[in-house]
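From the shared-data thread, chain only:
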Amino acid sequence: MQVKPGGHTFTGAARRAQIVAATIDTIAELGYNQTSFARIAERAGLSSTRLISYHFAGKDELMAAVLAEVLDQLGRHMAEQVSRAGDARGRLRAYITGLVGFTAAHRDRMRALMEIFLHPQGDLSSYGPEDDRDALGHLEAILREGQERGEFRAFDPFVMASVIQRSMDALPLLLRTRPELDLEAYARELVTTFDLATRARPGDVA
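Structure, as tokens:
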């Protein structure tokens, strides 16, 4: 038998992945409150909810696994996009287009992520101000670097990072009411807006 580190079989890992994927689809379609083990089992084609309970102790643990799955994929995508840029302005542009692009390509995953954040339960309710500041850290670092290099004007990097991030955080909710929204155009508008808002001009002192 092939066994993964930690004692999990590859078959077990595949089953967990199947359940997580079905959970994402269920939340995206029905919302957090209507997502139950019964609904997830039905979508996953499982014969019993006990197959879910075998891998996850409860709904909190399953939702934590969904968060980990989506955030890990998003983090790897963003790191790849931003690393390609040669300067701070380029990294800011890549951050915006990367996040909007990920949302466009993975609407169900981002909708599920938003639903879980809007309905914190159990251990998930521990997500708070410190975690939010950590989430803004990469963006804030890009802005500080741009200021140090003279690419960006003087401003509060945390405030600017918060404004930029919040302009994209609500996209999954916006897409529920405007599913036809052109996300490429949305990204271009954000890039232009924040390039103008941050760019250093002759005479500016960082």
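Residues 96 and 187 are 7 Å apart (CA to CA).
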